[in-house]
Design brief:
With 384 residues, this protein is of the alpha/beta class. It folds into 2 domains: 268 residues, 3-Layer(aba) Sandwich (Carbamate kinase), CATH 3.40.1160; 100 residues, Archaeosine Trna-guanine Transglycosylase, Chain: A, domain 4, CATH 2.30.130. 39% of the residues lie in helices and 19% in strands. The chain has 16 helices and 15 strands. It has an 8-stranded mixed beta sheet, sandwiched between helices. A 5-stranded mixed beta sheet has the order 12-11-13-14-15, with helices on both faces. Strand 13 and strand 14 form a beta hairpin. The longest helix is centred in the first third of the chain and has 24 residues. The protein is globular and about 70 Å long. The structure holds glutamic acid (GLU). Glutamic acid binds next to helix 5 and strand 4.
Length: 384
């Protein structure tokens, strides 16, 4: 595959509405000195700023807390005990957040620190909350800089590697593209460090056992991820309709380099994030409640609009915020969606204007009963 072909593939990066960039510890922190590679980070920050200038929303998943903290705490080289790595993360995360804040604010971008645990991405309600927060931050033009909350995540409940975390973040944010910046430029048929016949794989459309076998390759000394975790991340991302790119970060302006056709490995999905999400909503076997809507609302849903409280006639069932409900019109199901309010609140605001929500509930809630991104209207599924 030549540079022109790589450049064509990289349109997935350039044209993604939402982009997640994962940066490994081995890139951010110099292995020998334990110091931060600030000059390199400045060049990545330039690329991120360029993406936001093009109108893209960018989320950063950054490792490096443990690597930075261990130096500051004077911990000896080698493997750390869990409690030591948690202590190192607590110290290093402050520095990590600070440096991201500095480099991105210098480029006019607001920076938001988000620390997640495994449960925040696996538990449905916490997942929806984290998703809503990310949406709000991105909508306000901020760049979320995410890491695992290592200090509180004990052995059984931790991701441990940021490749998988980044994939779950991409899924949660419905991102179209995830770039894993790594110390290797992509996937090979074998470990190129050990096997001179190893061949580079530029594109993967199906992650099968062959790909898994190729991935049992190199790990770097600093981070936790090897090729195995990258392929596991690719599985999550592709399953969520997100393209994933493994690329080297061992060069300045690593995102710009991908855009101009430097080689990297792409894992390509066969669907889009929105379609995947809608399939998931449509696939809920048993909705937890129903909302009956009037003619005006039924018509609006048919035109791809959100469901507002004003168009809801009756509410029944037993559901919490984020549960799937069925939308009925004249006795027939016309849509399904994730409802933004729990049943008691939904009953209070049904039939009322969105501007009354604050007075009725004593807090400022969402304007929509079901947002259009969270709705699947019957007969429209095929068009997503
Ligand atoms: N969360 C860890 C850190 O910030 C990194 C995990 C990984 O290496 O992927 O140090």
């Amino acid at each position: 595959m030549n540079q022109t072909e790589f450049r064509a593939r990289a349109l997935r990066l350039k044209e993604a509405r939402r982009l997640v960039v994962k940066v490994g510890s081995a890139l951010l922190v110099d292995g020998r000195s334990g110091r931060l590679n600030r000059a390199w980070l400045e060049t990545l920050a330039d690329d991120i700023a360029a993406a936001t200038t093009r109108g893209q929303q960018v989320i950063v998943v950054s490792s490096g807390a443990i690597a930075l903290g261990r130096r500051q705490l004077g911990l000896a080289p080698g493997k750390l005990r869990l409690d030591e790595s948690q202590a190192a993360a607590a110290v290093g995360q402050i520095r990590l957040a600070k440096v991201w804040q500095e480099v991105l604010e210098e480029r006019g971008l607001a920076v938001a620190q988000v620390l997640l645990t495994l449960e925040d991405t696996e538990d449905r309600r916490r997942y929806l909350n984290a998703r809503a927060t990310l949406n709000t931050l991105l909508g306000l033009g901020a760049v979320p800089v995410i890491n695992e909350n290592d200090t509180v995540a004990t052995a059984e409940i931790r991701y441990g590697d940021n490749d998988r975390l980044a994939a779950r973040v991409a899924q949660m944010a419905s991102a179209e593209c995830l770039v894993l910046l790594s110390d290797i430029d992509g996937l090979y048929t074998a470990d190129p460090g050990k096997d001179p016949t190893a061949e580079f794989i530029p594109e993967v459309r199906e992650i099968d056992e062959r790909i898994d076998a190729m991935a049992s390759g190199p790990t770097s000394g600093l981070g936790s991820g090897g090729m195995t975790t990258k392929v596991a991340a690719a599985r999550i991302a592709v399953g969520a309709g997100c393209s994933l790119c493994i690329a080297t970060g061992h060069r300045e302006h690593p995102l710009a380099a991908i855009e101009t056709g430097e080689r990297c490995s792409w894992f390509l999905p066969s669907t889009t994030p929105l379609a995947t999400r809608k399939q998931w909503i449509a696939g809920t076997l048993k909705p937890s409640g129903t909302l009956t809507v009037d003619d005006g609302a039924a018509d609006a849903l048919g035109r791809g609009k959100s469901l507002l409280p004003a168009g809801v006639l009756t509410v029944s069932g037993n559901f919490g915020r984020g549960d799937t409900v069925s939308v009925l019109h004249n006795g027939a199901e016309i849509a399904r969606g994730l409802v933004a309010y729990a049943v008691d609140e939904a009953k209070l605001i049904a039939g009322r204007r969105s501007s009354d929500i604050e007075a009725l509930l004593s807090y400022v809630g969402r304007d929509e009963m079901i947002h259009r991104d969270d709705l699947v209207v019957n007969g429209q599924r095929g068009r997503e």
